[in-house]
Design a protein that fits this description.
The complex is a heterodimer of chains A (256) and B (408). In chain A, helix 7 crosses helix 10. Chain A is 79% helix and 0% strand. The termini of chain A are far apart. Chain B is built from 11 helices and 14 strands. In chain B, the strands form 2 sheets. In chain B, strands 5, 6, 7, 8, 9, 10, 11, 12, 13 and 14 form a 10-stranded mixed sheet that branches. Chain B has a 4-stranded parallel sheet with strand order 1-4-3-2, sandwiched between helices. The longest helix of chain B is centred in the C-terminal third of the chain and has 17 residues. Chain B is globular. Classes of the chains: A mainly alpha (256), B alpha/beta (408). At the A-B interface, helix 1, helix 2, helix 5, helix 6 and helix 7 of A face helix 2, helix 3, helix 8 and helix 9 of B.
Chain lengths: 256, 408
């Protein structure tokens, strides 16, 4: 029965959704710190304190979840490993063997675990600020109208640039004003947020049960990845239409 | 409708036949939904043909929102005017008045109702008629309530003025307004409660949205028999009310739709194809043999009228969405314009099947429609009207009736 429903999603995308990595490990150094401060300053100046706080709050919430998840997963693996290697005496193993190397250097695990929340705290506000900036820029400066003017000017290279930007603007607007609100409503109707909240609570409950915990996290990430794939599907299917509509905006006799 | 319509109407038996016709005429510029990566690439490559084409079309897709990719109606119309070399003073003002859009200019497009979105698409088409575009319009009757149909005539006059043609693509019997007679059902009761609803409309729906756009819904608490019809003119808040009841939008206050078995309410959206994409990609398990969803799907699809339809048709998708939504036996299910994309006989058979199955399972049904095809199917109704305009804010009033008689 279900083949009817599943056939409409291309196989490669389904497989991709099932095999996406849990998350990417970020790296953070002095230059990243300076960039972060710059970004925060930029956000504060151009978008205000309220936006910065809300973006940072969202980032911090995610960061805490991932930070705790990292510790839980690695600790669980640590316990398992130490049981195998040292019998049941694990008291000295987890914090020394898995946090600090024999020479006193932090292990790669420590670095990754600590970097992750910092990385998120930079990336998420930056991404939100970027999207917000695009939206505000297009609305405030009537980008569309300017690009349309460029589209009608003589000169193939300028026209090509205008067309490219126009297509980008249309795709962006489509995603921002059609796909995302639609998907949000569909997910709410589907009880997605309650489901996610339940799964996260289950994962927290299972934090000392490595196998269950890993399974919970895997299910959460799979579900999120599938939502991501759905959004991509809904966004991509309109691209040919936007291409043709942009071409139609070129006045008669001007197309080359 | 005019006695002598100035547009040509083509009739099609199914949604799929109509979509195939559009693609044969226009080619790539319509979204081919859910057909896979290969079809997408084929469409993408076909856009080259469109670039060189001398004959172009202005078109309105089955869901008019699909062909309007801007944040505000104002920008949609300005872009259309930019493409026409129009220099007539006050041209935009004139268009806004003719298509009753003046009060909607600054609203975000996704907060417009279906009928308002269609009027905007008609206005865009009217502007594009000045350039080289003939118009192809899919099923205006699915979106426009009777009081808004004159907008179609307005477009027709404008196209005639600029010597452009309009082709309306309709499904069989779609214009037929004859009331369908039907015997009554065994019916569960439906407790319908609304308390101090208010919703902010904007991109983010709550918090960051435009606080000047605000909708309030008047209190109502009543018990109505199922199936219940929610009706009203375009833009009065029918779909918004349904989305609030189904928890699809954020709001303050409480909304309850209490069926006999559960307080949970599920909803099938008007553009069920978008909803199906998210649902199918979220589902990771096959339906088990003899499961409730399979039973429901088969029961809907194997009715006499619907049995000949393909399993991947729009109707099959609707049947699947209903089956998935009632598998956990919610208290009620809401169908938003279930006739969208269906011809009259299929729509009536579909609704009859859904009512029958839902009532068998003790699930109440609410249906939103502006058509009078189904009048005799309903046992109660709620009329939705909009009043107290103040800027972008308005108030929705609900007038329930136990006895049927919504369109009279």
């Amino acid at each position: 029965m279900a083949y009817v429903l599943f056939d409409v999603i291309p196989g490669p995308i389904q497989r991709l959704a099932q095999n996406l990595p849990a998350f990417s490990i970020g790296r953070f150094g002095v230059s990243d710190l300076m960039t972060t401060l710059g970004i925060y300053l930029f956000i504060l100046i151009f978008f205000g304190l309220e936006f910065w706080i809300s973006a940072l709050t969202a980032a911090a919430q995610l960061a805490i979840i991932i930070f705790l998840s990292c510790i839980a997963v690695y600790s669980a693996f640590g316990i398992l490993t130490s049981i195998f290697r040292y019998g049941i005496d694990v008291s000295n193993v987890i914090f020394e063997r898995f946090i600090v190397l024999p020479g006193g250097e932090p292990t790669p695990f420590t670095a990754a675990t600590l970097e992750q929340p910092i990385f998120l705290a930079v990336v998420l506000p930056s991404a939100l600020a970027f999207l917000f900036a695009i939206e505000r820029f297009f609305v405030t400066f009537e980008m569309e109208k300017r690009l349309l003017v460029g589209l009608r000017r003589p000169g193939e290279s300028l026209r090509l640039v205008s067309m490219s930007f126009l297509i980008f603007v249309r795709c962006f607007n489509h995603v921002a004003h059609f796909v995302i609100p639609n998907v949000t409503q569909i997910l709410r109707e589907d009880g997605f947020y309650g489901e996610m909240s339940g799964r996260i609570r289950a994962a927290v409950k299972h934090i000392y049960l490595p196998e269950s915990f890993v399974l919970d996290i895997k299910l959460i990430l799979e579900r999120l990845a599938k939502v991501g794939c759905g959004v991509i599907m809904l966004s991509a299917e309109y691209i040919p239409m936007w291409l043709s509509q942009v071409v139609q905006l070129i006045p008669d006799g001007d197309e080359s | 409708m005019s006695d002598s319509p100035r547009y040509q109407i083509e009739y099609f038996g199914t949604f799929e036949e109509r979509e195939n016709y559009v693609r044969s005429v226009i080619g790539a510029p319509v979204p081919q939904r859910h057909q896979g990566a290969a079809i997408f690439m084929s469409d993408f490559l076909k856009t080259r043909q469109w670039i060189g084409a001398k004959r172009r079309y202005s078109f309105i897709t089955p869901n008019p929102l699909d062909c309007l990719a801007f944040d505000r109606p104002e920008v949609v119309l300005q872009a259309a005017i930019s493409g026409t070399k129009n220099s007539v003073p006050n041209f935009l003002t004139s268009i806004l008045e003719q298509f009753q859009l003046s009060h909607l200019l600054g609203r975000s497009i996704h907060t417009l109702s279906g009928g308002e979105t269609f009027r905007l698409a008609l206005a865009k088409t009217a502007i594009e008629a000045q350039s080289s575009a003939d118009a192809i319009i899919s099923s205006p009757w699915s979106w426009l309530s009777a009081d808004n149909l004159p907008c179609l005539e307005t477009l027709s006059r404008m196209c005639e003025k600029y010597n452009k043609s309009i082709e309306i693509l309709s499904l069989t019997d779609e214009q037929d307004e004859e009331v369908f007679e039907f015997s009554h059902f065994e019916i569960p009761k439906l407790q319908f409660g609304i308390r101090l609803q208010s919703i902010r409309m904007g991109l983010r729906e709550v918090g960051g949205g435009d606080s000047s756009s605000r909708v309030e819904i008047e209190d109502m608490a009543i018990e109505l028999p199922s199936p219940c019809l929610i009706y009203g003119s375009n833009g009065n808040g029918k779909s918004l009310l349904a989305k609030i009841l189904a928890g699809a939008v954020l709001f303050s206050g409480t909304a309850e739709l209490i069926g006999s078995s559960s307080t949970k309410t599920r909803m099938v959206f008007q553009d069920v194809l978008n909803q199906a994409v998210m649902t199918s990609i979220a589902m990771n398990e096959h339906w088990e043999t003899n499961s409730l969803p399979e039973f429901v799907f088969n029961k809907i699809m194997k009715t006499e009228v619907l049995s000949g339809l393909k399993s991947r048709s729009l109707l099959a998708t609707k049947a699947q969405m209903v089956a998935l939504r009632i598998q956990h036996k919610p208290g009620a299910i809401i169908l938003d314009e279930p006739d969208w994309g269906l011809n009259r006989s299929d729509a009536i058979s579909f609704l009859c099947s859904v009512f029958s199955i839902c009532h068998e399972l003790g699930i109440a049904v609410l249906v939103i429609t502006h058509r009078n095809w189904f009048n005799q199917l309903f046992r109660s109704s709620v009329k939705v009207t909009k009043n107290n305009f103040s800027g972008r804010s308005f108030r929705i009033a609900l007038n329930p009736a136990h006895e049927f008689g919504p369109m009279h």
